[in-house]
Amino acid sequence: MSEEISNMNVQSLWGNPFFDFVIKPSTSKSGGILAILDKRKFTSISSSIGDGFMAVFGWWQSAEVQCLFVVVYAPQNQRKKRKLWTDIEKIISSHDTISIIMGDFNEVRNAVER
Fold it and tell me: What are phi and psi of 16, to 5 degrees?
């Protein structure tokens, strides 16, 4: 994701014009995060980007509730993982709403899996 992502790029992935998106660019070897939101179902109010995650807060229209989506790209390093979960806990605590966490959690059980 080192190249710039435009509305046209995202629309070609999404397939219709009813979208919004938030990007966390890639850093070094870690992948970036792209969240595409269907504006007919979710209205974004704010977003924040941290080390290894991106959070999007908004209005989930069909459920008629505010909601926080947290998209994770977790690091392999245990110290960085602990910091990631501390950061996610803080952002969830700052929103008194439903929170959904999803993504790539990079759980490696042994070195062979790397």
Answer: -150, 165
Cα–Cα distance, 7 to 17 (Å, whole number): 9
Count CB atoms within 10 A of the CB of residue 97. Answer: 13
Alpha-carbon gap, residue 75 to 67, rounded angstroms: 25
Where in the sequence is the domain holding 73, given as residue range(s)? 7-113
User: Would 2 be classed as within a structural domain?
Assistant: no
The pLDDT value recorded for residue 2 is 38
State how many domains the chain has.
Answer: 1
- Give the span between the Cα atoms of 43 and 65, in whole angstroms: 11
CATH number at residue 27: 3.60.10.10
Task: Report yes or no on 22 lying in a domain.
Answer: yes
pLDDT, tens only, 65-109: 999 999 998 887 889 889 999 999 999 999 989 999 998 877 766
Check: CB of residue 61 under 8 Å from CB of residue 40: yes
